[in-house]
Amino acid sequence: MVLNQSDIKVSIFGCGWLGEPLATYLLEKKYAVKGSTTSSEKVNRLKSKGIEAFQIQLEAIDETIIAFLNADLLVVNIPSKNINGFKNLISYIEKSPVKKVLFISSTSVYKDNNAIIFENTADSFSDSQLLEIEQLFKHNLHFKTTILRFGGLFGYTRKPGNFFSSGRSISQPEAPVNMIHRDDCIEIIYQIIHQNIWGETLNACADLHPTKRKFYTKATEIIGKPAPNFIEGEPVSFKIVSNDSIKKCLNYQFKHPDILKALEF
Predict the structure, then answer these.
(1) What's 150's domain CATH number?
(2) Which residues sit opposite 10 in a β-bridge?
(3) pLDDT of res. 214
(4) What is the mean pLDDT of the chain?
(5) Total structural domains in the chain?
(6) Cα–Cα distance between 241 and 147 in angstroms, integer?
């Protein structure tokens, strides 16, 4: 069932490179949006965009979060693996009006098995704290959670050509990459909220998976840097993360299915 945006209050825990433009996009779609940041300076910037802003740190949650969690749904979008911090956050969510949570996770929960990986591929999971945190949200009975596992994030100010600028070499250059442009991240989150898709676990990577060699060579070329150094001759260990489920679940077509072309944006 598609809900009326004007009836939904969304809180975004973590308004950084992804969360801030997501908040702006949801405002354009007529949602009421609250956003959190760890920076006092950024509070004013968020407010200037019409976002009700809060300064909150996962490691030091206090009563401030009660007003922030006065919402219908919560997007959790912070790169922390602080399990105790998330447990504390969940204890506040349980006492709040929030009944739906979108937890932004990562395909790093999968280990390299030299095969295509789906959301529930047997024996595909790494020994990951992030996976433990996913389970805390997924199995909580006070709210419904959708887990969204993004591949490597890029776009706009986050340029893959800078990822190895310190002179670090790239291993296994023939291994495929699993990446997603920020435009698709934002649209997918919007579609999950708009289409009311809860209780799911979904991978989100672009359609195509070029090799590290092709991807990072073009990425450095675009920003005018020398091609990176590649470590040759290593056995290839990789994973190809499937996006079949998310395309079917949301009836979604990627804005940037070809990540080599998407490097221009």
Answers:
(1) 3.40.50.720
(2) 33, 73
(3) 97
(4) 95
(5) 1
(6) 15
